Structures are given as C-alpha cells and as structure tokens.
Amino acid sequence: MSWLTLGLPAGGPALGIILLVIGIIILIIPRIINYLIGIALILSGIGWIMAGSWLWGILALVAGILVMIVPRILNYVVGIYLIILGLGQIIASGFALGLPLIVGAITLIFGIIVMVNPGVLNALVAIIFIIQGVLLLAQYYHWF
Fold first, then answer.
1. What is the residue-wise DSSP string for 18-57?
2. Which of 79, 105, 77, 82 is nearest to 92 (CA)?
3. Structure pTM?
4. Number of helical H runs and strand E runs in the chain
5. CA 60, CA 92: separation in Å to the nearest integer?
6. Model pLDDT for residues 68-82, shown as the tens digit of each residue
7. How far apart are the C-alpha atoms of 119 and 123, rounded to whole Å?
8. Contact by Cβ (8 Å): 140, 12
9. pLDDT by residue (tens digit) across 19-73?
C-alpha cells in the first residue's frame, strides 16, 4: 500500500470527502498550497541529504526555503514552465494544424494567464480537487 493513499480505498467516499475539504481550504486560504509545497521541498531536501545526494538535497532545501519566504514565486515558476512547454509544443508541431498545435497554444495561454494573475493557479488547483472529490463521491454513490 502506498503512503499516498493514506490507507483509504482509492474510490471510496472518504477520499472524495478529503479532496472536497482540501479544495475548499485552498479556496479559503489560497497560499496554503504554496507553503505545503515549500515544506515538502524542505523535507525532500533533508531526505536527499541523509541519503547522500548532496546536490539535489541542497537544491531542494534552497527551493523550499525560497518558497516559504516568497510563496508566490512558485506560481511564477509554474507560469514560466507552462509558457516554455507551450512554445515547445507549438514548435514541435511544425505549426501544422492539429492536436499538438492546439494543446501547445492552450498551454501557452494558461502560462500567460498564470504570469499575469498568479493567484489563479491556486484557485484552479482547488477547483480540480473539488471536482475530483465530487466525481469520486458520485461514482461511489452511483449518481451517474
């Protein structure tokens, strides 16, 4: 059993309720997800250093501390990543009209939106958690 499942059934109502609660908490306190990621980076860095991987450990520690000091920087990093990914997909598609070009354009647009309004990323993550929670509950209770 993976530690990510927390011992809960993958499709049970408990997981759906947990996702709903997490999504609502993120909507109420949007920056909490940035702090949780910062803490995860710090813990990962400590683990990597203890395992002997000094370079990745120090990088993760520095990134975690930076995210804890300036939480919004994480949103900008994701925005830049989406822009680079979108441009790469557009270029790789050879500008031929098709699915890769459309996905690249959408990814590029989302990256620009996140750069202009970084707070929207946290709201999107919260909405995704809420939708996943509702879908798990709907599947468990046979609503569809």
1. HHHHHHHHHHHSTTHHHHHHHHHHHHHHHHHHHTT-HHHH
2. 105
3. 0.73
4. 6, 0
5. 31
6. 999 999 999 999 999
7. 7
8. yes
9. 999 999 999 999 999 999 999 999 999 999 999 999 999 999 999 999 999 999 9
